[in-house]
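input
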Amino acid sequence: MKGIPWGRFREFIGPDADRFVILKDILETTMLEFRIVTIAGNRHFFITPQAVEEEFPRRRPVILTAHYDRSPGSPGANDNSAAVFLLIETAMKLKSGKERNWLIIFTDKEELSRNETIRNQGSYTLASGFKDAGMENARIFSFDACGAGDTLIISTSVEYLLKKEGKGNEKIRQSLLELRETALETARDLRMAKVLLAPTPFSDDAGFFRAGVAAQTITMLPSGECTQLVSVLRRNPQFADALLSREEQSAYNRRLIPETWRSLNSPSDSHLRLTPRNFRTVIRFAEALCGR
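output
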């Protein structure tokens, strides 16, 4: 991990790191166009190409998000520092290209304490801001835990939740299907051999969903863990509940959760779990989404 921004990664995951200050300094160093938007006390970073904000009301942008906060006591290397740095590198590549219809947001307050609800997520109030700006129909892709593994996971968690809740939210359902197809088409265009549709732990997509805005979560897993996950879900489709809710995680269910996801929000989520050889896959995918 050399150069900008990876030279600051170990500092960013340090135990006493002020991640807001470090991220702000990195963005200033990279000369990316950004501004800080504070909503309900949460500070989000908006990275845009020059003059793009004037185009948003007339065009449907692609928005890539990654939360930059972490759980207390965890280095947060995979959740979610890796995705933040991967999207910074993506933004640096996009800045030198011709695409101008994109926006990258580093969101605050994705992680929740046990006494908080989805409506406390930063993405929940952020989605309300999208509605006020007429951007609720933007194509939103949330990148989370993208630093470990060789297989791209296109999450089906919100679709699973919609099915459990029954009828209603048809607009979000259709938007999710469109986002999923866009992600699959992008992966096909890039000839990505390892791609899986599967439920995943909730990310910012939960807050967006509860606020009435569709977002597609993108994550990564090692192929061996994917094989195990598919096998468990085939035998017990309701196992998805254990991925989506801590309350559903019995000791038995927790043992069946992929090891990469079990390590999230814990001291074991360190840089040692990351697989840098696969970082380029995520960057290529994120960049290609912005070209669609």
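quick obs: Residues 6-289 form a domain with the Aminopeptidase fold (CATH 3.40.630.10).
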